[in-house]
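Inverse folding, one chain.
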C-alpha cells in the first residue's frame, strides 16, 4: 500500500492526511501483513527494467522509499522518487541516507497527475502499490507516458485477487475482515486499513488494467501474477527505440 493521489472519489487532501497519519508504522505493517513477501515482489518488479539498462528511473508514489534503493541495483545514473505525503517522504529520506544512496536518489513532493518533469525525462518508471490510489487513473498514466523517453518502460506492481478456490475465499475474508483489525491495532488509525481493501476491490485489475495502459499509449503490455495472484506486475513500453539519456 502506497500513496499518491486520491482513489475513487477520495480527495487528495484526504489521502495525504491518511498516509501521513500511518507513516511511523507503515513499514512494519506492510511487512507484517504480507509476511515479508512484499520485498520479493519489489525485487521482481525492478528486474523488469533490467532489459532496457535504464540510466534514469522515476519511482512514482515512492512512499517510505522501499523501491528506490532496490532500483539502485540496476546501476542507473539517477533515481527520482515522488510522493504526495510529506511524512512518508521524511521516512524515505532517512532510509535512502541509511543505504548511502543520497547522491543517487532524489526525493520530492508531487502528484502523479502533474509530474514536475520535462517530456522524455526518464528511461523507466516504477509504481508499486500506488496506482490504485490515482484519482484519475488515465490522466496519471498519460503523465507517466509523457515523461518516458521513446522506448522507455513502465512497471506497475499492485495488489490483485486470487482466482482459485479456496484461496480466493480465504483471501477476501482476510483482506476485508482480518487485515483492517490488525492495521487499526498497530497503526492506531481507524480508517487507513479499511481504505486499503476498498481501493484494491475498486482497481481494474488484470486484463482490464492492460486495456487502460493501451488506451493511454503504451504498447507491448503484459502482466505477471505473483503469489497465486495476490499481487500482479504490469508492464508496458512507450513506442520507439530507447534514446540515450540527456
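Residues assigned per position:
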Amino acid at each position: 500500500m502506497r500513496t499518491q493521489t486520491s482513489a475513487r472519489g477520495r480527495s487528495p487532501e484526504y489521502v495525504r492526511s491518511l498516509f501521513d497519519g500511518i507513516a511511523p508504522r507503515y513499514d512494519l505493517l506492510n511487512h507484517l501483513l504480507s509476511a515479508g513477501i512484499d520485498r520479493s515482489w519489489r525485487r521482481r518488479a525492478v528486474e523488469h527494467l533490467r532489459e532496457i539498462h535504464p540510466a534514469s528511473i522515476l519511482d512514482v508514489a515512492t512512499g517510505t522509499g522501499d523501491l528506490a534503493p532496490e532500483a539502485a541495483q540496476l546501476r542507473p545514473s539517477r533515481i527520482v522518487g515522488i510522493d504526495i505525503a510529506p511524512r512518508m517522504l521524511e521516512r524515505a529520506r532517512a532510509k535512502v541516507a541509511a543505504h548511502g544512496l543520497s547522491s543517487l536518489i532524489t526525493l520530492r513532493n508531487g502528484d502523479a497527475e502533474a509530474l514536475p518533469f520535462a517530456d522524455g525525462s526518464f528511461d523507466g518508471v516504477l509504481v508499486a502499490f500506488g496506482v490504485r490510489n490515482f484519482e484519475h487513473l488515465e490522466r496519471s498514466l498519460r503523465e507517466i507516458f509523457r515523461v518516458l523517453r521513446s522506448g522507455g518502460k513502465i512497471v506497475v506492481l499492485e495488489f490483485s485477487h486470487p482466482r482459485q478456490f479456496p484461496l480466493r475465499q480465504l483471501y477476501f475474508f482476510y483482506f476485508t475482515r482480518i487485515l483492517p483489525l490488525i492495521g487499526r491495532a498497530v497503526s492506531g488509525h481507524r480508517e487507513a486499513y479499511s481504505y486499503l481493501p476498498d481501493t484494491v476491490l475498486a482497481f481494474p485489475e488484470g486484463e482490464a488494467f492492460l486495456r487502460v495502459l493501451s488506451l493511454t499509449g503504451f504498447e507491448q503490455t503484459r502482466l505477471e501474477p505473483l503469489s497465486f495472484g495476490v499481487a500482479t506486475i504490469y508492464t508496458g513500453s512507450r513506442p520507439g527505440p530507447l534514446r540515450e539519456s540527456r
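The first strand starts at residue 56 and ends at 60. Confidence is low (pLDDT under 50) at residues 1-9.
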